[in-house]
Write a structure and sequence with these properties.
Elements lengths: L2 H10 L14 H10 L6 E5 L1 H11 L6 E5 L14 E5 L1 H11 L6 E5 L4 E4 L5 H13 L11 E4 L1
Parallel strand pairs: 1-2, 3-4, 5-6
Family: Belongs to the aldehyde dehydrogenase family.
Keywords: NAD, Oxidoreductase
Pathway: Amine and polyamine biosynthesis; betaine biosynthesis via choline pathway; betaine from betaine aldehyde: step 1/1
Length: about 150
């Protein structure tokens, strides 16, 4: 499902205007103007440290609230006093965490991949499917690692 279809569904089910705003484009063209615009009340971003620093710099002059979840793709478990590592994310990063923890025999709990799909079968109650799909996408404004990001329809 593309972003245009998602917008159409949200309108169809009565999601109020302004609750969902989809902005497409590259960072310099789309993201930078958003983080610096005085009418944008808050910026939430998940991604690289480099981009996070740029967002903070753009938002700082207006004392705009910013929520950043930043991280690299090369995690290393280095602290002796860490008893266990729990990670939710990509398979690639999970392998690196497992490899880093193994020499120290650290217990690791990994929840990898998936992209948080909702699967809708042909015998479904369509109203319930729509309700739960929207809940999965927008609960906590989508700012949670398990937010629905794919809809698979039978």
């Amino acid at each position: 499902m593309g972003h245009k279809e998602l917008v159409d569904i949200c309108k169809e089910v009565g999601l109020p205007s302004g609750v969902l705003n989809i902005v497409t484009g590259l960072g310099p063209d789309a993201g930078a103007p958003l983080s610096a615009h005085p009418d944008v009340d808050k910026v939430a971003f998940t991604g690289s440290f480099e981009t996070g620093k740029k967002i903070m710099a753009s938002a700082a002059p207006m004392v705009k609230p910013v929520t950043l979840e930043l991280g690299g793709k090369s995690p290393i478990v280095v602290f002796d006093d860490v008893d266990k590592v729990a990670f939710t994310g990509s398979f690639e990063t999970g392998k690196k965490i497992m490899a880093s923890a193994a020499p120290m025999v650290k217990p690791v709990t990994l929840e990898l991949g998936g992209k948080s799909p909702i699967v809708v079968f042909d015998d479904v109650d369509i109203d319930k499917a729509v309700e739960w799909t929207l809940f999965g996408c927008f609960w906590t404004n989508g700012q949670i690692c398990s937010a629905t990001s794919r809809l698979l329809i039978h």
